[in-house]
Design goal:
Blueprint: H1 4-10, H2 14-26, H3 31-50, H4 56-73, E1 87-92, H5 100-111, E2 115-118, H6 125-135, E3 139-143, H7 150-162, E4 170-174, H8 180-186, E5 190-191, H9 195-206
Parallel strand pairs: 1-2, 1-3, 3-4, 4-5
């Protein structure tokens, strides 16, 4: 597959990206492969933001462009059939309104046959508890792009455990400032650097090859 899609995502060239997505779909390229190329482009966006080449406005724009691309691919996700694997509850912890990473994870997980319950951003602990009770997920994902929200993740995970909802549920965290040390601090089961890490960990957890 050409670099066109990756470059279009990284350079925020919406019209080029939409045209290339449609072109790849017409060629029969699997939805997951297209999403993975989009993710590579988003990774470049993230690096440019870290290096102060891009600013918040570019981050917001990249998220909107990614959403548009994902909507185009939507009908092809998971082969158009029902989710064949487990359920994931996903959200960005309260105190943080970033949704780029969360959106990538939900899209890629859906692409891989998981049912994803997207709670949105700035999600309070109570909303996580309600979702776990209602949907009985095997995996809970918490996205965090602000170090100031680390304590919020810790409090949320402690509350899940205190409510007796931790049994049979694995909690994954991810986001720019997170690492394995963060996962240890907040009490998560694993730190996932990329959306694909979330997929691979979840499949391993559920014994899916």
């Amino acid at each position: 597959m050409s670099q066109t899609l990756i470059n279009a995502m990284a350079d925020l060239e919406e019209s080029v990206l939409v045209k290339e997505v449609k072109n790849l779909q017409a060629q029969g390229v699997p939805a997951l492969e297209i999403i993975q190329k989009l993710q590579e482009g988003m990774n470049i966006v993230g690096k440019r933001y870290e290096e102060k080449e891009y600013y918040l406005s570019e981050l917001i724009m990249s998220a909107e462009i990614f959403k548009e691309a994902a909507a185009l691919i939507g009908g092809d996700l998971a082969g158009g059939g029902a989710p064949s694997h487990g359920t994931m509850v996903m959200g960005t912890i309260y105190g943080d309104i970033h949704d780029i990473g969360k959106n990538i994870v939900t899209t890629v997980m859906s692409c891989n046959g998981f049912k994803v319950v997207d709670l949105g951003v700035d999600v309070p602990t109570a909303k996580y508890l309600e979702a776990i009770k209602e949907h009985k997920p095997q995996v809970v994902g918490i996205s965090c792009l602000l170090t100031t929200a680390f304590d919020g993740m810790k409090e949320c995970i402690s509350a899940i455990e205190a409510a007796g909802l931790r049994d049979g549920v694995k909690i994954l965290i991810g986001g720019g400032p997170c690492d394995q040390t963060t996962a240890n601090y907040v009490g998560a089961d694993a730190y996932c650097k990329t959306a694909q890490d979330s997929v691979e960990y979840s499949k391993k957890l559920l014994g899916i090859s």
